[in-house]
Amino acid sequence: MFTEIITIGDELLIGQVVDTNSAWISKELNKIGIEVIRITSIRDLETEISSAIDNAFKKADLVLLTGGLGPTKDDITKQTLCKYFHTRLVFNESVYLNIQNLLSGRVPLNNLNKEQAYVPEKAVIINNRVGTAPITWFNKEEKVLISMPGVPQEMMTGMKEQILPRIQKHFQTDCIIHKTLTVKNYPESVLAETLESWEKNLPSSLNLAYLPKPGMIRLRLTARGKDQELLTALLSKETVRLKNILGSNLFDENDEPIKEIIGKMLINKKITVSTAESCTGGNIAARLTSVPGSSGYFAGSIVAYSNEVKTSLLHVKQETLDKNGAVSEETVVEMVQGAMKTLKTDCAIATSGIAGPGGGTPQKPVGTIWIAAAYRDKVITMKQESDRGRELNVERAVNNAFLLLHELLM
User: How many CB atoms lie within 10 A of CB 274?
Assistant: First the structure.
């Protein structure tokens, strides 16, 4: 069964608002066996809304609209849907009572709010528990269109509490199961070549997608069919085959963020971590502390952008800096050891490099970043090279730093 999502609003097309609704909806639909085949963003124009619906119904069994249901004049979705489905707006007492209850004691009720209680006569009306714009469900022969508010909280609440259960009841869908595994130490083309024979022999009910991230690649195995038990068994069988091919380079099979994997390892070993960051500017520390419970293992961070901070707080020798420079294996080793000493932790991560766009030399071009991880008396390092722009250089360095610590803790 196929679905198209249509998001409505000029703000989406000028970059003022990022469309997070579509990603969330797609993920939730997949859980109940519904595949999204297209996501379309359009302006608040009647002709474009109608045209988008026409195009969606050509291939999709279910069309989901978000946006354009507010009380102001630029919100025209409801009126456009009335024209499209040859119906009219009628006053709905239940919707009006819901609006009154929501606004009572907070916002004075005016005519614009009251107009939201006028709904398409031919639609099934679903009250919005957390907002004033109701959800409308239209049946078109064997197909369905559902119009929802664009406000993420309102959309998500309506989907979880009302729409998803109704969709499951209305449509008979196949089972879709995803399993995402994460691989390190492989460029995408090399990984594809390594897995070519295995991929060619996958059962027809399974397919593979490559999802590269800076420093790592996620492999998404998708199983489709009627028999959930059989599909689960197939995924388990192919996962074992992947492990045999990739060994320890396949380091996660639960699509778990590396920061959370590291956190669990630190908790299990009952050890603490710190960071000494130059070019990554505290990004590693920010990732670590974004995990709930990280106070149990994260001690602190020293963002040592200047050489003075490297020497005074991280105990990097001046002679090391003079001889090798700040961007060197020798310096990053002393930084990581200094972090453990100053912050009194069992392990640490350190980075020093040239993120760009300036600052490079022929000997050390932009994109050169040294990374070190230490656990007690053992230190391992890596040199990250190639310039992919400042943001990606830093992102790769953060991920590579986590992977290096992961290897050390293993």
Answer: 27
How big is the CA angle at 206 (ends 204 and 209), to the nearest 5 degrees?
A: 125
22 is written with which tokens?
Answer: 């579509």
Q: How far, in Å, are 43, 47, 98, 101, 249 from residue 120 at the CA level?
A: 21, 18, 17, 22, 56
Q: What are all long-range contacts of 238-246, with beta carbons under 8 Å and residues at least 24 apart?
A: 238/198, 238/202, 238/206, 239/179, 239/181, 241/198, 242/181, 242/195, 242/198, 245/194, 245/195, 245/198, 246/183, 246/186, 246/194
CB 36 within 8 A of CB 8: no
Cα–Cα–Cα angle for 175, 152, 45, nearest 5°?
A: 100
Rg (the chain; Cα; Å): 27
H/E stretch holding 51 = helix 46-59
Report d(CA 27, CA 172) in Å as an integer: 18
Mean pLDDT of 129-158: 96
End-to-end CA distance of the chain: 43
DSSP string, 262-292: HHHHHHHHT--EEEEESTTTTHHHHHHHTST
171: tokens are 């449509």
Question: What pLDDT was estimated at residue 321?
Answer: 98
By CB atoms closer than 10 A (0-12, 13-18, 19+), residue 395 is middle
Q: What is the pLDDT of residues 274-291, one digit of tens each?
A: 999 999 999 999 999 999
**Model pTM score:** 0.76
pLDDT at 65 over 80: yes
Concatenated DSSP letters of 173-228: --EEEEEEEEEES--HHHHHHHTHHHHHTS-TTEEEEEEEETTEEEEEEEEEES-H
Residue 9 has which token pair?
A: 């609003």
Angle at 332 between CA 327 and CA 338, to 5 degrees: 140
Q: What is the DSSP string of 9-47?
A: -HHHHTTSS---HHHHHHHHHHHTT-EEEEEEEE-S-HH
Buried b (16+ CB within 10 A) or exposed e, 186-205: beeeebeeebeeeeeebeeb
